[in-house]
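Exercise 7.
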Amino acid sequence: MRYSQMLIPTVKEVPAEAEITSHKLMIRAGLIRKVASGTYTYLPLGWRTLKKIINIVREEMDRAGAQEIIVPCLQPLDLWYQTGRSVDYGETMFRLIDRHGRGNVLGPTAEEVFTFHAAAELNSYKQLPVNLYQITPKFRDEFRPRFGVLRSREFIMKDAYSFDATPESLHKSYMAMYDAYCRVFKRCGLEYVIVEAESGEMGGTGSHQFTIPCESGEDTIVYTADSSYAANLEKAAVDPLPKEVVPVEIPPAQDVYTPNVGSIEAVCAFLKTKPQDMIKTLVLSTPNIAVEIEQGFVKELAKHDGRRTIPSQDWAGKYVLAVLRGDHELNMEKLMGVWGGWHLDLADPDTIERMTNAKVGFAGPVGVDLACWDLIVIDHAVAAMAVGVTGANKTDYHKKNVVPGRDFPLKGNKVKVADIRLAQPGDTHNGVPVLFKKGIEVGQVFKLGTKYSKKLGANFKDENGGLQPCLMGCYGIGINRIMASAIELYNDENGIIWPIAIAPFEAIVTPVNQDDADVVRVSQEIYGKLMEAGVEVLLDDRDLRGGIKFKDADLIGIPIRITVGKKSVVEGNVEVKLRAEPQSQKVPIGEAPQKVAELINSLKERLKV
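Solution. The predicted structure, written as tokens, is:
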């Protein structure tokens, strides 16, 4: 391909909104252009790289026995009502009403549609296992799209779904995808780590996340220095703290007047105490903004179709109390795992006041009416406290001398003690201190179990003729995220340094003196021989100064550059340089194509699996 015939709009300046390296370089190198907030067009170089990533993913999915299909991005809202996830996704999901008054969504994922097809097509254990996958755009209405394609409103994903008859078969399908993911990321040239992960809104019993360690990542990896444990922050389990021992008898709990003092910091300043001596109480509920959105949308549907009714509200009217130490943060994923029910959100101020008889900042676990709550979850660290200060469930009052187990229960029908907090420095796992580093999630695998098959009727007849729900797995890879992660990992002050397997071109021929007939002739000859050898090569035939061409070649990150200059041609040489190395080497003109081919093979050999 000739540079002069391609659209490669490199630029020096980038928009101020570009916060991280990959976003800046993708704009500067002419890979993408913004259309609207969170949506991007991939220009020729960017699309070439995306296609290479897609091909690697497709090859490994096929190699693992998965079968490619494609399902609609436009999905019936009724399917999402059946699983209840229309509420879970809330504002994040794009909803629309068609001309016939039917509700639809732009799919943020595709469990519902794949399970719908499984319910219709899979009816016997003899048809199982089956693994189906697709590579398509997905849509999420992010509140604040940022970091370029890492958190956008439209993105490209590979999602696969396995259907099995037994737990043993599901584990085999799961590990086949696990191994395929390892091969995908190795072939793309990425340095990755695998961590335990929460299933979150996907549901299920087990999950692993593939993460690229990177300071600009939004995920946090929690790990031990001895490599015995690694998990993402939402999953990371920490050891219970030892029970505090106080040698003196603690007086009864006592109300203290704390006017207009509701935050942990303010209470500590007012009462001369420390955050670790505070007990904070959080009210969570299911009737949240997502429910209001759902109800409002159904009312809009009813304007088109009078038969429409608001779907089952089993998810409404549920209330959970979470009790943590003042210096700890709630881990919502852990809490929802303990809750085992519908999606939870922090309650609004009106709900907090109605449930606790106090304004925000004055809730506490002492004296609560268990009949009003569906569950009370007390963090391990609170159960280990000897004494603390907490809200009095009375506006402008706190309680001091509060003893867990004496002044509020640590066990009971609706009370659980569990690990529901985020890990933090100083914590341990199995006695080993935990460490933290940032990362970018590029893939995740889930054992979904029967969460979707039961709700959507994906059943099969077993060997005895009995009807059983399919055991499902789900496996996602962020295609765009692989691209951005590679740039985050491999770059310098001059631009991108692509791994050979996903570079838009493998080599670039750069004639320095475009007005010199011999330079042009040699450049054309090398370009032609590389093309004949199957090398993906770009010829920079622009009538520009050599310095500009070099800067563009470094910026767009092509792995190998062949520089053809007037002086070197007279000497019978060209310069061959690897983008990742500082020095070039002189190579005889006639040997240049073979040398480039050898370098390409060497770079590819490192990525073989």
